[in-house]
Amino acid sequence: MNNFADLLIKEVLKKESSVVVGLDPNPDYFPLCLLDKGQSDIKTITDSILAFNKMIIDVIHPHVLAVKPQLAYYEVYGSYGIYALEQTICYAKSKGLLVINDAKRGDIGPTAIAYAKAFLGDSPLSGDAVTVNPYLGRDGITPFLQERIDRTKGIFVLLKTSNPSASDLQDLQLKSGEKMYQRLAETLDHLAKDTMGHYGYSNLGVVVGATYPQDASYIRSFLKHSLFLVPGYGAQGGKAEDLSCYFDENGMGALISSTRAIIYSYMQHHEDWTNIDKNKIQESIEISTLQAKEEINAIR
Ligand SMILES: O=c1ccn([C@@H]2O[C@H](COP(=O)(O)O)[C@@H](O)[C@H]2O)c(=O)[nH]1
Hints:
300 residues; alpha/beta; TIM Barrel; eight-stranded parallel β-barrel; globular; binds ligand LLZGTKA7; Orotidine 5'-phosphate decarboxylase; lyase; orotidine-5'-phosphate decarboxylase activity; decarboxylase
């Protein structure tokens, strides 16, 4: 039976794409055709968020593997936001996209089990994968990988994040001489071996920022069985030409994620973006998605 990584790699081959698009809806950046700025009740805002996400999904689904909703952008609207997220997940799946919930969860064992059920079980919030915070250690991670979890679901553990302060903790030098993220990579390598698929990749993937290619090169040579989820390409300054080392020798193993540079590309393309219509929004989003796909295909 296929594991999560097998399903994902099959999609890479079918769509000839390693691109993931983040869904981080911020109504401050919505044109008037989506949201009249005078309208500030939560239901109107979350309805426009759902409409925006559907608009994006309609144009990107042939070109990308997955969407990556960032939970904070939905949680900020309470139950209305969660409903918009559930509907977004459902719509993305109906268009054949994988869903990676960027929730960065992690807790003591029993609570991690509840998180695993919420994001990888039968819940309406369940996608195909979820991001996991490893700060609690192994027992905060393993519940996401156990038998009770479907083999077709995966996780991406934060290993080397894309932000400027990532080094504060992740690069701390241990007594052994290793950096903290290198030690974490060893632990994850052991855990990854329990859920291997046909293509040699495990259900345990890692987050490695596009802004740290040197570290990525070390991690790729060390963690051979983990898919990389790579945020930081585009708006955070990560460049396609630095990303070859994130892929394996077959051009597989990395999913390059871009959010603002794609979903708000109309702000770059149109000076008067507040007054553009739905067609113009979608046209910009499709152009920038195809550009990302081509840039990444050229280096992988
Ligand atoms: O290391 C990390 C982990 C997660 N993120 C998230 O990815 C997107 C990035 O958005 P861009 O607009 O492409 O910069 C966002 O949701 C972050 O929370 C990350 O950036 N880095």
